[in-house]
Specification:
This protein is α/β, with parallel strands linked by helices. 36% of the residues lie in helices and 24% in strands. The chain has 14 helices and 18 strands. The strands form 4 sheets. Strands 12-11-7-10-9-8-17-18 form an 8-stranded mixed sheet. Strand 15 and strand 16 form a beta hairpin. The protein is globular and about 65 Å long.
Length: 436
Amino acid sequence: MTTSQRPLKVAIIGGGMFFDEIIGQSFKDFMRGGIAGALTSIGMSHLAPAVAGVEIDVCAVGTRSQKSGTAGRIVDWFAQEFPDRPIEACYGDAVWLDILQRHKPDVLFVATPDNVHAQPILDALDAGVDVVTEKPLCLTTRDADRIIQKARQLERIVSVDMHKRYDPFVREMMLKAPKEYGPINRIRAVLEEPLEVSTEIFAWAEESNPFAYVGCHWLDVVHHYMQVKPVSVFATGQKNLLLHWDEHHQEIARRRGVDAAAFKRQGPINTWDSMDVAVTYDNGMRGDYNNNWINPEEFEGAVNQEIELYGIYGRGMVDQQERGYREAIIGDGSRTRNPSFGGRIRHHGGNLEIFGYGKASIAAGLLAIIRRRIFGESMDDLEDTYPTAASQREIVQVIEAASVVAEKNHECFQAGRGTPVTALLTAEGFDILGAE
């Protein structure tokens, strides 16, 4: 193996919820020292010597609105540490097209809203650019098929930031489960985001839902480690808070002793508070996925996440709040922390660096791109080394089916007909059963 004669050029679109904490800081680390140091966490440290000489440069950051100034703020943030490595701030409704044409990056990192993943990915592939995208890959099976087909046709990498499969606690349990727990009868998985996600941070909450946004993480963990195939999907959901946000935000403000006018969103937000999705798999196992994005900000952790396996010989559970790191600080309250996701350390040289599975997932995608683009390895050789677009097809299929089923069951429930609707997954997509 030989290294490239020039740095791997990366362009980033979107600010992303965890940009400063995870995405941006990871790329700062990669610009400073490459990806070799991050490979232990993905079990690929044997490749560290080969990739040690591959430099990574961020060439552009793009966001939609120039008024918000997000791209400029990010570029200034990078410039504080890398003043001699210029990055351009770009803006526009389809900002990636301008970046792809003028900067000609090797990699496009997509951190746009859930509903604005597919087109940038497709356009990047057409431009001969590899992709690392935030989850979910996209929101429809049709778009997933288009991405998978184009990536295969053009022999380009599309890696999805499915970082939960690299969580060391989850990975440990999932790898030992088949032998220690025996056949798994049921999986229960919970991931709940704070209320500010749907009401303050994401203006696009109505274009997605809490299951698509974070339920995809647990779907990926289950599908990746257990190699199961989903057969049918049942879903229900609740629309009690966000749909009536114009009424309830005032009561929340009163309880917190703040001015209701300070809330960014004032009117109704037409999306789900929470969703409950049951998936039946081809081995008879059932997966119960519970997600919301209305968890009170007073909750002890940044998120509430847990996964439990019920086997015939044993069971296992990973609960973020039970990992043992708790703090109580005057003015900040009692909180649980999860440095396994994005722990921070400042080295003797003064540089801040992060470690954890949030960074590991990005490194996995970049490693595959380096091995393909620079070292010329085949797509087949790389297939199982990163979260591929193809590995996400059934996840997107479940997300799309659950969204449709939940809406139809909501309509039936409102009409006094219970919740009779389910989806049967097919090779093409899914069939809706019980709607009439």
